[in-house]
Structure formats: structure tokens, C-alpha cells
Automatic annotation (TrEMBL):
Protein name, as recorded: Uncharacterized protein
Organism this protein belongs to: Pontibacter cellulosilyticus
Bilayer-spanning residue ranges: 7-25, 68-87
Sorted UniProt keywords: Membrane, Transmembrane, Transmembrane helix
């Protein structure tokens, strides 16, 4: 449990919200935003442990490819959020 930080817990919560919104509301764009941001947070900070040749447990460093993927997922979530805002402003208002 030591390798789970606050960012990983928040990422799990965001991913669960995204999955629930996909199943309940069937809004794929909002689900993709939640899931992308949540998975990006999980990938960016999840620390895995390993055992060296002497039997000592150590924390493995986060690979560069995983950090790049996490950053791209978070940027993708922001881009999808901006696209959602754009689509919301394109719809006609109900007060006319």
C-alpha cells in the first residue's frame, strides 16, 4: 500500500467515474475525458517494487515511456474537454 499515493487514488476515482458515466449516461466523450485524465494520473505516479539479487525490496524508477504516455493522456483529456466545451456552445440555446 506504500506505493499508492494520493495522485494514484485520485486517478482511480476519476477512472471509476468515467467508467460509471459510460455505463449509466452513455456519453462517450465525457467518459473519455474522465478515463484519460484518471489513467494519466495513475500512470504518472504508480510506483512498482522489485527485488534485487540480494533479496532486498526496492522501488523501481518510473520509465520514461510511461511518463510520456501519462503526459499525453492528460493533454488528450484537456483537448477533449475543450472540444466538449466547443460542442456545448454550438448547440442552440433553449431560451429563444
Amino acid at each position: 500500500m506504500k506505493n499508492i499515493s494520493v495522485r494514484v487514488i485520485i486517478g482511480i476515482i476519476f477512472s471509476a467515474i468515467g467508467l460509471a458515466s459510460l455505463f449509466i449516461t452513455k456519453q462517450t466523450l465525457m467518459a473519455a475525458i474522465w478515463l484519460s485524465f484518471g489513467n494519466g494520473l495513475i500512470l504518472s505516479d504508480l510506483r512498482l517494487t522489485g527485488v534485487d539479487e540480494k533479496g532486498n525490496v526496492f522501488v523501481k524508477p518510473i520509465p520514461k515511456a510511461r511518463m510520456i504516455t501519462a503526459l499525453l493522456l492528460i493533454v488528450f483529456a484537456v483537448a477533449l474537454l475543450l472540444f466538449q466545451i466547443f460542442l456545448d456552445f454550438q448547440q442552440p440555446s433553449l431560451q429563444e
